[in-house]
Design a protein that fits this description.
single chain; MATE_MepA_subfamily; antibiotic resistance; globular; MdtK-like; xenobiotic transmembrane transporter activity; cell membrane; mainly alpha; 2 domains
């Protein structure tokens, strides 16, 4: 057993959580910075049409990331439990399946988008002004499709063998290269939107390349060798059963955002701008808490696989307390500096007022984010695909979308903002209930087999 897995099994609880969670949180913080920087440098062209074109193309790019998460989160759940059960050979099969699954699916997706580019641009609402720009961006970004999948997959899977820092480094390298190249290619070379796309592709190639080199150096307990690829022994179904529900939340987020935008647009462009910036404010807490959840998942999964239920409960308790403290601190910081954060994005007085008001509404429940994402990760760690699916469908879909219409009818424009806090409370309560139920069931099964 290597040193990292030894820490999973018998090391200090706080040290194990921090060593796995902090790098994952740092990686998500870098993703947040990258997302903001990409939009910022395109904005420096002072061409609103280019900004609009990137906004239209972004949901397509997010689909690549979501599919990468299918293999990454699903693979991490299966591998971490297999490691706890000392089934290293099986873990290698899962790891190899995820790699080659990313490559094959990534190529298929890229070809699909190239073939149906016209129909896709119509679907996302491209106009005569944005059509060619959005097409240029997507045509270039699709070149890096398989690399996007690999990067998003292995930034999760490496944590399953305790390599949280290496998992972070791949994301860090890819995002940092992208951020550095953005001003050079967009502004320096004058390539504008094409420069943004090229920087994105190069960043993803380097990020994925880091993970490939890590495996080729042979220092991993896992493997990406084709000889381990198999669809037998529930390798494929085990990964997809957890990965698909986890990625659905990302897809539903895009759908719900489209609905929010369309409803908010009826109150004017400034209201639309305000809600968009307000969501960026709460994203600060959300992204870091997602990193915390991703970081503790393999640790919890190992405890489940090894049948270490006392340790599992201690890890979960420590993670929940840490998550609550983290969320409260981040939420309080965003609330106190709300005006300054909003001002960095908006200068129009009316839009500024909307954004501040909406931000304060959304921040009412962002202190729950840490607990929510730890609960989600706990369900994934136990391999409870059904419960994971229910929670992921609920927060951004089954609860949130109906609340948008109900609360708008009752409260008008503010109702659209209050829909998210209501969904946060109900979905966190649902996740807690399902997590307690699943834990009790797993513990009974574990004791029965011991």
């Amino acid at each position: 057993m290597n040193e990292k897995l030894q820490e999973f099994e018998s090391g200090s609880i706080s040290k194990a959580v921090f060593n796995n969670a902090l790098p994952a949180m740092a990686a998500m913080l870098m993703v947040l910075i990258y997302n903001l920087a990409d939009t910022f440098f395109i904005g420096q062209t002072h061409d609103a049409v280019q900004v609009a074109a990137v906004s239209l193309a972004t949901p397509i790019f997010l689909i690549f990331m979501a599919v990468g998460s299918v293999f990454g989160i699903g693979g991490t759940s299966v591998i971490s439990r297999a490691m706890g059960e000392k089934r290293t050979e099986y873990a290698r099969k899962v790891c190899a399946f995820c790699m080659w699954g990313c490559i094959i699916v990534g190529v298929i997706m890229s070809v699909f988008f190239w073939i149906f580019m016209g129909q896709i641009l119509k679907l996302v609402g491209a106009t005569d002004a944005t059509w060619d720009l959005a097409k240029t961006y997507l045509n270039i970004v699709c070149i890096g499709g398989p690399f996007v999948l690999i990067g998003n997959c292995y930034s999760n899977i490496l944590r399953a063998e305790g390599q949280s820092r290496k998992a972070m480094m791949g994301q860090l390298i890819g995002n940092l290269i992208n951020v550095v190249l953005d001003p050079i290619m967009i502004l320096g070379f004058g390539w504008n939107i094409a420069g943004a796309a090229i920087a994105t592709v190069i960043g993803n190639v380097f990020g994925a390349g880091y993970y490939l080199v890590y495996f080729w150096r042979g220092k991993s307990m896992l493997s990406i060798s084709p000889k381990y690829v198999t669809l037998k022994d529930k390798v494929c179904s085990g990964v997809l059963a957890i990965g698909i529900p986890a990625s659905l939340s990302s897809l539903l987020m895009s759908i719900s955002q489209i609905i929010v935008n369309s409803q908010m647009a009826s109150y004017g462009d400034m209201a639309l701008a305000g809600i968009g910036v307000a969501m960026k404010v709460t994203m600060i807490t959300g992204m870091i808490c997602i990193g915390l959840g991703n970081g503790v998942q393999p640790l919890l999964g190992y405890c489940v696989g090894a049948n270490l239920w006392d340790r599992y409960k201690k890890v979960l308790k420590f993670s929940m307390v840490f998550a609550l403290i983290l969320s409260v601190v981040l939420t309080a910081t965003c609330y106190l500096f709300c005006n300054q954060i909003v001002h960095a994005f908006l200068s129009d007085e009316k839009a500024f007022e909307y954004a501040v008001e909406f931000s304060r509404i959304l921040l009412c429940t962002s202190f729950l984010f840490g607990i929510f994402y730890v609960l989600i990760s706990t369900l994934q760690a136990m391999g409870d695909a059904t419960s994971s699916l229910i929670v992921n469908l609920s927060r951004q879909g089954l609860i949130y979308i109906p609340m948008l219409f109900i609360l708008q009818a009752l409260m008008g424009i503010n109702g659209l903002a209050w829909a998210q806090p209501v969904a946060d409370i109900l979905s966190t309560a649902l996740a807690a209930f399902l997590c307690v139920r699943a834990t009790r069931k797993m513990m009974r099964l574990g004791k029965a087999h011991s």
